[in-house]
Specification:
alpha/beta, Rossmann fold, 11 strands, 35% helix, binds adenosine-5'-triphosphate, ATP binding, ATP-binding
Amino acid sequence: MSELNRGLIEARDIGVVFGSGSAKVQAVRNVDLTVQPGEFVSLIGPSGCGKSSLLNIAAGFVRPTSGALTVDGVPVTGPGSDRGVVFQQYSLFPWLSVRKNVEFGLRMAGVAKSQRESSARTLLGLAGLLAFENHYPDQLSGGMKQRIGIVRALATSPQVLLMDEPFGALDTQTRTVMQEILTNMWQRFRISVLFITHDIDESVFLSDRIYVMTSRPGRIKAEITVPLPRPRTAAMTQTPAFVDLVNRLKTLIREESLSAMGSELQSGGVSGFGIDVGPEGVGKLI
Ligand SMILES: Nc1ncnc2c1ncn2[C@@H]1O[C@H](COP(=O)(O)OP(=O)(O)OP(=O)(O)O)[C@@H](O)[C@H]1O
């Protein structure tokens, strides 16, 4: 398989159950999803619908209770350097300098000192952070820390980047800049991205395709191709195509959030809370 054809993520009939007995939680049910090599795909849905569980399965941190997830046809059974992961919490090592943080995965992989230094410097330069290579994480802003997190995840040249609310802790301006930096890095590295966000505008701005999940147990409610050309620009966020799609997605998520709140209220003994839960099937929108 050539480099450009790598990074195919395929999840088939995934189910996730946590706990047992009365503490049993069915987090995810019958989820099929695909990320094509080089594609940017977002996963959105109401809180607690199982987005992080799916991403953690792809990362190899959680095993599915049923079904399988493969990367380039190989079942994921644990973490691996073919998949970079970025979380909302910065998870940098505070006792290591910026460059040593970026080098960490390469050091674990046995890459020679001079080579890992030069790879880390190249990546830090691309992210505009070379001047900070000898700083320590607590000397940096949140946006800078998250840029280092992305650079660190890319350092081992993974085929897949898995991102769980990576910009959730950042202010709106920093978040916008980070979205542009991520888009540039993604285009440069031609890597597959599976991205979780609660920010619907962000999912539309960044993605080729978006999966919308139902409330728990999470299933795929809709799969939507974003009809915007690339490169994406800030001006596009004002276009009718962008605004209409954001509104459609908000409606889909709102239906699910209401249905989740309705079931919680009903299971708590509150009656007369009339909510139409809607059809069970997966809607396919273009
Ligand atoms: N290790 C665990 N043990 C027990 N239950 C868990 C565990 N991890 C997740 N859950 C439960 O599984 C469900 C799905 O959680 P998950 O974090 O995957 O959802 P999410 O969509 O990412 O949520 P959010 O949007 O709020 O971050 C939730 O009800 C959660 O409480």
